[in-house]
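Recall the central idea of this unit: under ordinary conditions, the amino acid sequence of a chain determines the structure it adopts. In this exercise we apply that idea directly, starting from the sequence alone.
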Amino acid sequence: MYQVVLIRHGESVWNQENRFTGWVDVDLAPSGLEEANEAGKTLKKAGLSFDLAYTSLLKRANKTLNVVLEQLEQLWIPVIKSWRLNERHYGALQGLDKAQTLQQHGEAQFKLWRRSYDVPPPALEVSSPMNPALDPRYSSIPPHEIPMTECLKDVVIRAVPFWQVEIVPQILAGKKIIISAHGNSLRALLKYIKNISDEEIAELNIPTAIPLVVEFDKKFNYTKDYYLGDPEVIQAKIGAVANQGKK
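Accordingly, the structure predicted from this sequence is:
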């Protein structure tokens, strides 16, 4: 049996403010740091430890991972960071209030932008200060690969090859791995791993800072996944993600 642990970052400042975040490098809120601490304690209680970690280039995922590893007394393990695990780029929606966007454009359009598989939001203007091409952390990415908006399908295209080429061989080599990333980059991986349909993936909501254990058989076929922690807390957090925009 093989397994990997996935964890979405703790609550960010913009999560609290109900704003679209995407590639904007927003920090964790104090509540998000506490969530990360609790996640680390939960993993420790479950007897889990790791040999290698993966995360995105965004601080909210990095800080969540660091807090978790500190709780496990494993800050020393190697950490590989990649933009391919970044959150979905929300284009011109980045920074906008979700409730106001819902009210302005209507529920159907809002859900299409937020949850459809292959419909991206309006693209960011090239002149925007949020253009990733202006950020030195993305200087090694070929210009044609730098997104100005993304749908979930785009995230699958960039994240799944990284999973296949970089992460899976490490798991098959016996490494115990944790991935600290984002709601949509983790949805992209789970869509591939679990063969979730384009329609069903719209209803998959990932709670903040709850460890998700994904298991595979000896032939690396997906067998099951389960969250660690209090079921009532987990369901409440899933519901909170599903209801974003309605605040």
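The first helix runs from residue 13 to 16.
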